[in-house]
Each structure stands twice: as C-alpha cells, then as structure tokens.
C-alpha cells in the first residue's frame, strides 16, 4: 500500500514539475499583452484568454501536489495545538469525511457539464477567444482525480503510521 502511495506522490510531483513552466509562460504572455496594448495599441482576446487557460490549468492540476507538500489551506482551530495522535485522527477524519466526499461530489455533479461541453466542442468564452472551453472544463474532473488520489496516498500513510511522504 505504501508503494502505491509512492506512485501517487510521483504522479503529482511529475504533474507539478511539468506545470511549473506554465508560470513562466503566463508571465511572458502577460508582459506581451501589456506591451502590445500600451506601447503598440494592439489587443487580442485570444491571447488574453490564453493567460486564463494557463492559470486555470496551473491551479487545478497542481492542487494534488499542494496537498502532497502540505501547503494547502488548513483551518487549524484545534490542529495547531493538538498532540500528534489527535492530529492524525483529525487528518484521517478530514480525508474520509470531508475531502474525499467533496471530490466525489464535485466530480459527479460537474461530469454532465464536462460531457456536454465535449459533445458540442464548446467554443470560446468571448468572441474571438480560444475555441476550447471543453478543455477548460475538463480540468475539473482531472482536479478531482489528482486531489482524491493524493488524499488516498496520505490516508494510506496515516493508517500505516507514517506521517510524511
């Protein structure tokens, strides 16, 4: 089971290492948009939307890695001062009762929208934009999958008595 958890960790690390290049692309494209608009007086909805697509991809697909490295948002009213055993119980409960059911619900309820978007190859958000909203919507189930898998890996480790990856 711990080997399986390690494979999940490796998957999310690989995804994150690939996605980090999107940050550079976003900065360069946004810089180009500003220069184009304010220096040359040109603008492109398609290019502006590309920043949105890159940003959405980065945050949706890197969420599993964020959970892996424990940099996610944690409401630690009790957690910060709790004993290690209590923290373990809080973590296990959080994954089983909150995180995994939330990912399942989000995947379940978003799937019809994603499926329909692919069925019609849903077009741009704005006139002149990127004609691939279906790809943008596909990030939702991928987000759910990567976060749920990482949650499972963490849960396996917690149940085996291991605290970190």
TrEMBL record:
It is found in: Cell inner membrane. The chain crosses the membrane at residues 21-40, 52-69, 90-111, 139-160. Keywords: Cell inner membrane, Cell membrane, Membrane, Transmembrane, Transmembrane helix, Transport. It is a multi-pass membrane protein. InterPro entries: DctQ, TRAP_DctQ. GO terms for cellular component: plasma membrane. Its main location: membrane. One of its GO terms (molecular function) is transmembrane transporter activity. Belongs to the TRAP transporter small permease family. The complex comprises the extracytoplasmic solute receptor protein and the two transmembrane proteins. Part of the tripartite ATP-independent periplasmic (TRAP) transport system. This is TRAP transporter small permease protein. It comes from Roseovarius bejariae.
């Amino acid at each position: 089971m711990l080997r399986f958890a390690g494979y999940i960790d490796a998957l999310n690390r690989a995804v994150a290492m690939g996605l980090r290049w999107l940050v550079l692309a976003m900065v360069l494209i946004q810089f180009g948009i500003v220069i184009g608009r304010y220096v040359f007086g040109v603008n492109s909805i398609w290019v502006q939307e590309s920043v949105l697509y890159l940003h959405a991809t980065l945050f949706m697909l890197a969420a599993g890695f964020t959970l892996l490295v424990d940099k996610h948002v944690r409401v630690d009213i009790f957690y910060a001062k709790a004993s290690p055993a209590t923290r373990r119980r809080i973590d296990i409960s959080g994954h089983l009762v909150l995180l995994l059911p939330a990912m399942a619900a989000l995947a379940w309820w978003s799937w019809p929208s994603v499926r329909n978007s692919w069925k019609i190859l849903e077009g741009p958000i704005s006139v002149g934009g990127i004609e691939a909203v279906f790809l943008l919507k596909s990030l939702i189930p991928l987000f759910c999958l990567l976060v749920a898998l990482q949650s499972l890996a963490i849960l396996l480790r917690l149940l085996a008595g291991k605290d970190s990856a």
